Automatic annotation (TrEMBL), chains A, B:
Pfam families: polyprenyl_synt. GO terms for molecular function: geranylfarnesyl diphosphate synthase activity; metal ion binding. Keywords: Magnesium, Metal-binding, Transferase. It comes from the Archaea. It comes from Saliphagus infecundisoli. Its cofactor is Mg(2+). This is Geranylfarnesyl diphosphate synthase. The keyword Plastid does not apply. Belongs to the FPP/GGPP synthase family. The lineage of its organism: Archaea, Methanobacteriati, Methanobacteriota, Stenosarchaea group, Halobacteria. InterPro entries: Isoprenoid_synthase_dom_sf, Polyprenyl_synt, Polyprenyl_synt_CS. Its EC number is 2.5.1.81.
């Protein structure tokens, strides 16, 4: 059995190699054209970095389906299951562009100052430009997804997945906002919310290569399920990391979810176990909270068993996600998708 | 020759009959589902009214192409040129949904209080909800456009038109915002800006039925040109009406473009003819401007010949748009599209 450390190294290497290719493809798909300020703002967050986890899921799923060795086959001319060539990289960039659009608009809605260690787009530019940059990325993602060269019936199905995914992300974000104004939220409600807000884009990332390459419905369904499971596991781990990773490493204030009274699986569990969540941190301003306050809050959540509970749920979901991969040929790329599921819940940031 | 009054009556009747059908279709395509607040906010502006000019262009172009009498054929089961049935109403609603999304986000960017005589969505709800309502309409428009039942190759082309149209609208809005910060803007720059901000959605409305119904490229191109011409004529007339129609009738403060220092063909012309545009209205707050100030400003623009110049340009564009319709069979629906071009520049509001 691989140790978590060895697995993390292998996953980070695999992610890193794909990230470089994705980073090269982004300016090709989204060049800075007139009006330059709009496109610079649209590219700002994409250029600021990011792990490119969703494109990595997409590209690796394609490799597993095509049964080719990882990184052996050009993503721009990738073999479909019927021998037709498709541009898998265009689909990968499209998904990352959607992710970037949602982050830009989310940061406006949450009035967050920092993202990926740099100012949020509405801080670096202004709210107007940030709204418009997000809107531009939105339609560009559709344009880019139309450039895969897949046959029209599969292109239509891919576009349908992309559109319904975006709708569900909006629904999830709306639930997330409405939960902030509510006290009690059930575990089921929370899991539904993160499925829509976060996991559907992982589901799209895992199922789109199957759709574009011409896989059968059972395979598409199973891969979508993998994405839903690991996507939720990822979000739960993200909520844990918000509490446990130092601000410098996180690229934003540690504990900001608590300060902003966001519902997470941790707070949902803690409230059910008698913790006074609203009383954990006094201020509602991330600029005024102290590290000591966050330390005390985390200690209380730990003693209620809430962080352990969240870790356990993430583990269950990741394991279920891995099981769904049995629909794929048993190859190196599939192994990487399994490792990726583990990495998403074991990662330190 | 028809008198402008008779033509206006005929157009308003035709628009009204289609509007009722579009109004019935909107809740079918965009039902209020969970999370209800999000969908209520998404529907708020659509339900507040609107002339449905773009859906009318789309549905009437379909009738002209199919060579059927206006309103004789169900839009939900509309005959394509190859005899296949398509849902033309879905395409019409999709275009109106895009229009509504852009208005919601534009009102946030311009911080406008009123739209269609009711509070803007970000005033009735809040900025967060308005951003998200617009984002939801965005993807819903793509979902709805995928429900026309057109063969996949045509559906892909329609989606391409929709996506590139949205991108160009964003580019146009960005140019519009950047023009506000600039003094001199040339006539060509202004016309390019309104082509992107406004006319491309008319071009999509006129060309989408041709694409979905299976017309040839020449027809698609000519209809797109009709939309670009009448769309620009419409925007120029809109800028004229902002100065000349009483606030109550306009549903917002008359002269608000002047107060907000928006560039219009009128101000571009007036500046070129020595008018001190920045000095026309003292305040930059629409709530503080007086009717007398607007009256004086309009008088100065009139004596510079700027309003007449804008009217002449709108007339030229509308006439050129009508000429492009020669690609269509000579029938009642085509006559209506010609009348519509005239109406767009003759309308009183």
């Amino acid at each position: 059995m691989t140790s978590p450390e060895a697995r993390e190294r292998a996953v980070l290497e695999a992610v890193g190699e794909r990230r470089e290719r994705v980073n090269r493809a982004i300016p090709e798909e989204l060049p800075i054209v007139r009006p330059e300020r709009l496109y610079e703002a649209s590219r700002y967050l994409l250029d600021a970095g990011g792990k490119r986890l969703r494109p990595t899921v997409l590209l690796t799923t394609g490799e597993a389906l095509a049964d080719v060795s990882p990184l052996s086959t050009p993503y721009r001319r990738f073999p479909g299951l019927d021998g037709r060539t498709i541009d898998l990289m265009a689909a990968a960039v499209s998904v990352e562009v959607i992710q970037s659009f949602t982050l830009i608009h989310d940061d406006i809605m949450d009035d967050d100052d920092l993202r990926r260690g740099v100012p949020a787009v509405h801080r670096e530019y202004d709210v107007e430009t940030a709204i418009l940059a997000g809107d531009t990325l939105y339609s560009k993602a559709f344009e880019i997804m139309l450039e895969t060269g897949a046959p029209p019936d599969r292109a239509v199905e891919a576009l349908e997945v992309l559109a319904t995914t975006c709708t569900r992300i909006c629904e999830g974000q709306s639930l997330d906002v409405s939960f902030e104004a509510r006290g009690e939220v059930t575990t089921e409600e929370y899991l539904e919310m993160i499925e829509q807000k976060t996991a559907v884009l992982y589901a799209a990332s895992a199922s789109l290569p199957a759709i574009l390459m011409g896989a059968d419905d059972e395979t598409i369904e199973a891969l979508s399920g993998y994405g839903l499971d690991v996507g939720r596991a990822f979000q739960i781990q993200d909520d844990v990391l918000d509490l446990t990773v130092p601000s410098e490493k996180l690229g934003k204030q540690r504990g900001s979810d608590l300060v902003e009274e966001k519902q997470t699986l941790i707070t949902v569990h803690a409230r059910q176990h008698g913790v006074d969540i609203e009383g954990l941190v006094d201020t509602e301003d991330v600029d005024r909270v102290t590290e000591g306050e966050i330390d005390d809050a985390v200690a209380e959540l730990e003693s209620a068993g809430s962080i352990e509970y969240a870790n356990g749920m993430a583990r269950t979901l990741a394991d279920r996600g891995k099981d769904r991969l049995e629909v794929l040929p048993d190859n190196e790329a599939r192994g990487l998708l399994e490792d990726l599921a583990d990495y998403l819940i074991e990662r330190g940031y």
